[in-house]
């Protein structure tokens, strides 16, 4: 095959002569493909940059092994990098590694001698011959910083990249450059001439290090801009696109008037008939006020109605949750065994916000979940390191609504007894269609549990305070609670005289 590029038409101003976009080449990393809008473009040249230890070599090899497993052929060229034996020894610990591919559909070549003896022209000749003989459809050049340093001039370096682009297009070979050079150096030839730039970075957060991927450039397609977190696991790089950067599956459907029972008939009446279908509800209250038990009733009621449920929790492990529910006669162990209810538990510490969202939405889709109980907004809050929570939950709630999921989320007040009622997490209250407030108050040296419906969207609701008890049969809600004032503040005072407290006015915190 000749290395000369085919002749191109002189006039590209008519629809008949406009070239079509090349086909996509999936990377094999679902998160990265979502960020790029479907993968790389065939015969494109892409730069992967990042400091030592950021995972460039792992990512490039991961792409190579996926590419050959999907039927392609790959070449991995190193310049001044670790030896191939050492590299392959490290790669064997990853699940994507295949010894059968090495030396067959995936070949490794050291190109340093070629560039040392003959410069960039010698390296280019080596690359051409290797790609042609191996019929490679993916080429990795690991060590572009070395190539730029050994180039005789900036012009020679530009010509090298330009010629590489030309024959890569001829052979339909996609090319990846790996470099540890800083992207802040504006005007570098590889920055302006390549088809895409992806940066891997490390960000120190107190005693924790967060890995972040950013796509700075991607010709021919839109992409999810900004930073996206990733981790390095036994499976290689696992990339979590930032939830807010991705489009919704579709727009949520308009509310159809359907309501779901909470599993507690008295609460349904207080809310005007239950929870609106695909709505999001906040259970706000102090620790021990009964929020989790109300959520368990909600899931059990869904199982009886044929609506699969999911408990997504951070603090109580599945055994503890099942034991608590069984004491109330909810039979959660049986519901879990039948698959009517799923429990996903993860410790709140050392989590990534987008990893939590990805796991949650994947489970919802795979299991057809219709009722979701997130026990602990604080679990997401502790995974948020950049103040994203309000926007993040707005998108998460919208995606859940698209999937037809009715959601309850618990949030703890900062103190057991407070003078002012407020949602501890700023900015998230607007996403909730319903807010129910739980608390314990002291009345004559006795702690009582109370609840009030503080907000329902598009429906009337009871405005009184109601005492409730947790019994062996679950939740029992009594009559409106009236003999005290200042109950919402947790400092109850008996009325010595005069009429009972009106329940028609606004609660403190709504004024």
Topology:
Blueprint: E1 24-25, H1 30-36, E2 40-41, E3 45-49, H2 56-69, E4 74-78, H3 84-91, E5 106-110, H4 112-134, E6 138-142, H5 144-150, H6 154-171, E7 174-179, H7 189-193, E8 196-205, E9 208-218, E10 227-233, E11 236-240, E12 259-260, H8 265-270, E13 275-276, E14 280-285, H9 291-304, E15 309-313, H10 318-327, H11 332-338, E16 341-345, H12 353-367, E17 371-375, H13 377-381, H14 389-402, E18 406-412, E19 434-443, E20 446-456, E21 466-471, E22 474-480, E23 484-485, E24 493-494
Parallel strand pairs: 3-7, 3-8, 4-5, 4-6, 6-7, 14-18, 14-19, 15-16, 15-17, 17-18
Antiparallel strand pairs: 1-2, 8-9, 9-10, 10-11, 12-13, 19-20, 20-21, 21-22, 23-24
Could you write a compact summary of the structure shown?
The chain is α/β, with parallel strands linked by helices.
What does this structure look like?
With 511 residues, the chain is α/β, with parallel strands linked by helices. The protein contains 14 helices and 24 strands. The chain has helices at residues 30-36, 56-69, 84-91, 112-134, 144-150, 154-171, 189-193, 265-270, 291-304, 318-327, 332-338, 353-367, 377-381, 389-402, and strands at 24-25, 40-41, 45-49, 74-78, 106-110, 138-142, 174-179, 196-205, 208-218, 227-233, 236-240, 259-260, 275-276, 280-285, 309-313, 341-345, 371-375, 406-412, 434-443, 446-456, 466-471, 474-480, 484-485, 493-494. The protein has a nine-stranded mixed sheet, with helices on both faces. A hairpin with a 2-residue loop joins strand 10 and strand 11 (236-240). Helix 4 (112-134) runs parallel beside helix 6. The longest helix is centred in the N-terminal third of the chain and has 23 residues, at 112-134. The chain is elongated and about 90 Å long.
């Amino acid at each position: 095959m000749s290395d000369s590029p085919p002749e191109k038409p002189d006039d590209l101003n008519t629809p008949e002569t406009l070239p079509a976009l090349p086909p996509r080449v999936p990377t094999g990393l679902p998160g990265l493909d979502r960020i790029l809008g479907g993968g790389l473009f065939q015969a494109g040249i892409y730069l992967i940059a990042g400091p030592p230890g950021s995972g460039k070599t792992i990512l490039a090899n991961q792409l190579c092994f996926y590419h050959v497993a999907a039927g392609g052929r790959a070449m991995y060229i190193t310049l001044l990098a670790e030896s191939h034996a050492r590299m392959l020894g490290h790669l064997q610990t990853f699940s994507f590694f295949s010894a059968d591919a090495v030396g067959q559909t995936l070949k490794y070549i050291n190109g340093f001698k070629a560039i040392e003896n003959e410069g960039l022209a010698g390296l280019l000749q080596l690359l051409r011959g290797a790609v042609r003989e191996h019929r490679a459809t993916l080429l990795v050049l690991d060590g572009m910083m070395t190539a730029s340093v050994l180039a005789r001039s900036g012009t020679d370096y530009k010509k090298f990249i330009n010629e590489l682009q030309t024959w890569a297009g001829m052979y339909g070979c996609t090319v990846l450059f790996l470099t540890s050079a800083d992207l802040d150096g504006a005007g570098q030839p590889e920055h302006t001439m390549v088809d895409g730039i992806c940066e891997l970075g490390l960000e120190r957060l107190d005693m924790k290090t967060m890995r972040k991927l950013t796509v700075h450039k991607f010709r021919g397609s839109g992409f999810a801009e900004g930073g996206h977190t990733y981790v390095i696991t036994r499976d290689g790089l696992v990339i979590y696109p930032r939830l807010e950067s991705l489009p919704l599956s579709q727009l949520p459907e308009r509310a159809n008037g359907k309501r779901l029972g909470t599993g507690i008939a008295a609460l349904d009446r207080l809310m005007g008939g239950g929870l609106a279908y695909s709505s999001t509800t906040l259970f706000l209250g102090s620790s021990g006020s009964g929020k989790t038990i109300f959520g368990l009733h909600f899931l059990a009621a869904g199982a009886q109605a044929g609506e699969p449920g999911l408990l997504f929790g951070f603090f109580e492990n599945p055994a503890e949750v099942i034991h608590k529910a069984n004491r109330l006669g909810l039979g959660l162990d049986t519901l879990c065994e039948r698959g009517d209810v799923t429990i996903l538990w993860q410790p709140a510490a050392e989590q990534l916000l987008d990893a939590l969202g990805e796991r949650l939405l994947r489970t919802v889709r795979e299991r057809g979940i219709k009722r979701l109980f997130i026990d602990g907004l604080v679990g997401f809050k502790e995974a948020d390191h950049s103040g994203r929570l309000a926007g993040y939950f707005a998108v998460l709630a919208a995606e859940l609504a698209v999937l037809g999921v009715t959601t309850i989320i618990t949030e703890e007040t900062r103190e057991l007894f407070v003078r002012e009622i407020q949602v501890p997490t700023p900015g998230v209250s607007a996403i909730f269609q319903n807010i129910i407030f739980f608390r314990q108050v002291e009345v004559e040296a006795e702690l009582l549990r109370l609840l009030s419906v503080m907000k329902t969207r598009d429906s009337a609701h009871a405005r009184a305070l109601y005492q409730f008890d947790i019994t062996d049969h679950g939740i029992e809600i009594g009559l409106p609670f009236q003999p005290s004032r200042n109950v919402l503040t947790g400092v109850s005072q008996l009325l010595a005289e005069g009429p009972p407290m009106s329940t028609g006015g606004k609660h403190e915190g709504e004024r």
